[in-house]
Design a protein that fits this description.
Strands 1-2-3-4-5-6-8-7 form an eight-stranded mixed β-sheet. It has helices at about 25-35, 50-65, 110-130, 145-155; strands at about 10-15, 15-20, 70-80, 80-90, 95-105, 135-140, 160-170, 170-180. Strand 5, helix 3 (about 110-130) and strand 6 form a beta-alpha-beta unit. It is an alpha+beta fold and about 180 residues long. The relative contact order is 0.14. Helix 3 crosses helix 4 (about 145-155). It is built from four helices and eight strands. Helix content is about 30%, strand content about 35%. The chain has a domain at about 10-140: 3-Layer(aba) Sandwich (Aminopeptidase).
């Protein structure tokens, strides 16, 4: 397992669940999930094995040695099965905040969406607030996923903003919602 230079602790666990640094092992599985879920990602086109290899070799591979990478990516496991991927992205080290990213196995969304998102948020909060001592983490989401907002509210995230008609989606604009959690609130 590759290790992030910016972290003392590399694996965050809760019961049968854990997040750990991701690299090559699951890159094609991650590509599959991302391609299946384009509707809610800021990814414009489908990934190919070539683009995924290039991204992991030239972007992800270079994150591990940096003192202040702009993203920290993890695989999410249920027992020892990789069921998701995400991390902290668009990190602002000076102001101590980051955006939360998470994509789970598309086939498991129907049955495990709330459970996996809730557990993942707990693990990513431990990373952000305890390990990195960040002030704020947030989710930037197109207003297309009502189940997500329920999970965020139940996990004590506050809706900090609604950006009206902010994203072009299927021949129309949709709003973007920003849900945040602060370290000491």
């Amino acid at each position: 397992m590759k290790k992030y230079n910016c972290l003392n602790k590399q694996i965050f666990e809760k019961g049968d669940f854990r997040i750990q640094p991701t690299f090559d092992d699951y890159k094609y599985l991650i590509m599959k999930w991302r391609n299946e879920q384009l509707y809610h990602l800021r990814q414009e086109t489908k990934l190919t094995k070539e683009t995924q290899d290039e991204y992991f070799n030239n972007v992800v591979g270079n994150l591990f040695d940096k003192k202040h990478p702009d993203q920290i990516l993890f695989s999410f496991f249920d027992k020892n099965i990789c069921v998701g991927y995400g991390g902290l992205v668009h990190i602002n080290w000076k102001d101590k905040y980051a955006e939360i990213s998470f994509v789970m196995n598309t086939l498991l969304e129907q049955s495990f969406f709330n459970k996996y998102w809730t557990i993942y948020l707990n693990l990513i909060e431990e990373l952000a607030f305890k390990e990195l001592e960040f002030n704020k983490i947030f989710v930037y989401a197109f207003d297309l996923r009502p189940k997500l907002y329920e999970v965020l509210k139940d996990s004590n995230y506050i809706r900090e903003a609604r950006l009206k008609k902010h994203h072009w989606f299927k021949d129309d604009y949709v709003d973007v919602l920003i849900y945040s959690k602060f370290h000491n609130l």
